[in-house]
Amino acid sequence: MNVSADVDVVTQETFDAEVLGADRPVLVKFTADWCGPCRQLKPVLAALATEEGDRLKVVEVDVDNNPEITVRYGVLATPTLMVFQAGEPVKSLVGARPKRRLRQDLEDVLG
């Protein structure tokens, strides 16, 4: 179910396997169809997924269709970007940002 480049849509049913069980860090974008900044972030994350696919998996979760995940991780705003490593959330970023800034924010995860 590819949305764009390498950004897969994850649901309540697939979250644990796709995110918590991943073999590399996972950047989860908590998003909504009605969210303008989320749409702005889409090409940025698609590019990041393409460029860093070997080091970082990028997925998105629709907050309206997956309220259980949204509540579980305390997501209050969209877009929220959350990085998971070894099944645990290790970083949370709220709001859209240009690719250069996102890379800076993810430097510690990307190494």
From TrEMBL:
Protein name: Thioredoxin
Gene Ontology cellular component list: cytosol
Keywords recorded for this protein, A-Z: Disulfide bond, Electron transport, Redox-active center, Transport
Naturally occurring in which organism (per UniProt): Streptomyces purpureus
MF GO annotations: protein-disulfide reductase activity
Positions of the Thioredoxin domain: 1-111
Family of this protein: Belongs to the thioredoxin family.
Biological processes, Gene Ontology terms: cell redox homeostasis
Domain of life where this protein originates: Bacteria
PROSITE patterns associated with the record: THIOREDOXIN_1, THIOREDOXIN_2
InterPro entries referenced in this protein's UniProt entry, alphabetically: Thioredoxin, Thioredoxin-like_sf, Thioredoxin_CS, Thioredoxin_domain
Disulphide bridges: 35-38
Pfam families in alphabetical order: Thioredoxin (PF00085)
Source organism phylogeny: Bacteria, Bacillati, Actinomycetota, Actinomycetes, Kitasatosporales
